[in-house]
Amino acid sequence: MLQKNSITLAIDDFGIKQSSMNRLVEYDFQTIKIDKHFIDKLVTKQKKQAYAVIRAVLSLAHDLNLTVIAEGVEKPSQLASLEALGIKLIQGFLISEPMPIQKVAKLLNS
Fold first, then answer.
1. Which fold has domain 3-109?
2. Is 56 helix (H, G, I), strand (E, B) or coil?
3. Mind listing the pLDDT tens digit for each residue in 85-96?
4. Residue 30 has pLDDT above 60, yes or no
5. Considering the entire predicted model, what is its pTM?
6. Which of 40, 81, 82, 99 is most exposed, with minimal Cβ within 10 Å?
7. Crossing angle, helix 76-85 and helix 47-63, to 10 degrees?
8. Distance between CA atoms of 66 and 9, rounded to whole angstroms?
9. Which residues are designated catalytic?
10. From residue 13, how far is each of 23, 35, 55, 107 by CA, in Å?
């Protein structure tokens, strides 16, 4: 019913907290949002481990025909790493700070 009304569901903060893989089976999600925790690790000593987790999420998402969004992208080096992994959708301060809907509409119309 939701998809008939052009409403899609996303799992936020995927990979931490309550975002169990079981939810992928129970609900009809269309999008996985990779948590900022993993994005931040791309520029630390734990880069190798972060790459492995993100690649695993991408593989899972691909097999389930899900869209992937990387959350919390703040640095050009993070963006470059994500692009190298094939992630095409991001959100974070690198693109823009949160803003009211009126400002978003004005930005999109310009």
1. TIM Barrel (3.20.20)
2. helix
3. 999 999 999 998
4. yes
5. 0.82
6. 99
7. 50
8. 10
9. 71
10. 13, 4, 16, 27
